[in-house]
What does this fold into?
Amino acid sequence: MSKYSIKHPRIYRAIFDFAKHVCPPGMDVTSVTLNYGVKAKKHTDSFNVGDSVIVGISNYQGGKLRVYTSETDYTAYDIKDTPLMFNGSQYAHETEDFTGERYTIIYYSQRPKHREWTVEFPVVGTAQCLEPGNRTVPG
It folds into this structure.
């Protein structure tokens, strides 16, 4: 468990409780990242394994997530208040320009030797946007 999780247990618990509303049942989640104001350059998540779920929260404009299916072809997903599940280690991705205060929450699983901490994480719900054929990047 990170020092921030220990220092702010209510925020930590709220972030994992929120996952029950955005992650599919049975998703393996060992880690969560809370970003503020991050405009990620094109990259893959080399230490992650399997699908990740990302959702944007707060008051911002723009900031779609580009997910690349080839070196140049991508789809830009609006993740503001709408979760997206995709394999970040398989598909390169980046953030489009945005204005305002942009927070994102990312739920994922890391390869065992790169895990900083693990949690027991029973997910009991799912969001409509993660129903098959809706907001899941093909993989």
About this structure: The chain has one domain: 3-130. Residues 115-135 have pLDDT under 50 and may be disordered. The radius of gyration is 14 Å.
